[in-house]
Amino acid sequence: MLNRIVIAAAAVMMTAPLAMAGPIDSACIRSDRARGNAPLCGCIQQVANQTLSRSDQRRAADFFRDPHQAQVVRMSKSNADNAFWARYKKFAGAAEAYCR
Q1: If you ran DSSP here, which 8-state letter would residue 78 be given?
Q2: Could you give the CA distance from residue 80 to residue 95 in angstroms, rounded to a whole number?
Q3: Alpha-carbon distance 27 to 80, whole Å?
Q4: What own/partner pairs with CB < 8 Å and gap ≥ 24 does 30-36 have?
Q5: Pure H helices in 20-67
Q6: Do residues 43 and 95 touch, judged by C-beta distance below 8 A?
Q7: Is 95 exposed, middle or buried (CB count within 10 Å of its CB: 0-12, 13-18, 19+)?
Q8: What's the distance, CA 32 to chain centroid?
Q9: How far apart are CA 52 and CA 84, in angstroms?
Q10: Distance CA 16, CA 5 (A)
Q11: Are the C-beta atoms of residues 28 and 64 closer than 8 Å to each other?
């Protein structure tokens, strides 16, 4: 009986990250550049979870659908956009280093 409980708990723990796909992961999977590379997209989402707020993740996910939006934000004179861009660059650098 105890073995069954341990096995069931292990199964839940192993599948929990798969069930918690975030906005970056979802956008990445659908993008042409990732070509459905689930492990890469999952890694990028993990980095996003550590470096970006949920709101920033949703905003960054839009860049997968419309890369031009990244350029618009980068060139913006808005303080809010500049602050977001600084956070996004930190995230992108960390994802690039961690998810090779």
Answers
A1: -
A2: 22
A3: 23
A4: 30/64, 30/65, 31/64, 31/65, 33/64, 34/64
A5: 23-30, 38-51, 54-65
A6: yes
A7: buried
A8: 16
A9: 9
A10: 16
A11: yes
Backbone angles phi, psi at 57, to 5 degrees: -65, -45
Report the distance separating Cα 97 and Cα 44, nearest Å: 10
Amino acid at 37: N
In the block, tokens 């989402």 appear at: 45
Q: Which tokens is 73 given?
A: 């934000």
> How do the pLDDT tens digits run along the chain, 100 residues long?
544 443 444 444 444 444 468 999 999 999 988 887 999 999 999 999 999 999 999 999 999 999 999 999 999 999 999 999 999 999 999 999 999 8
State both tokens at 36. 């459905």
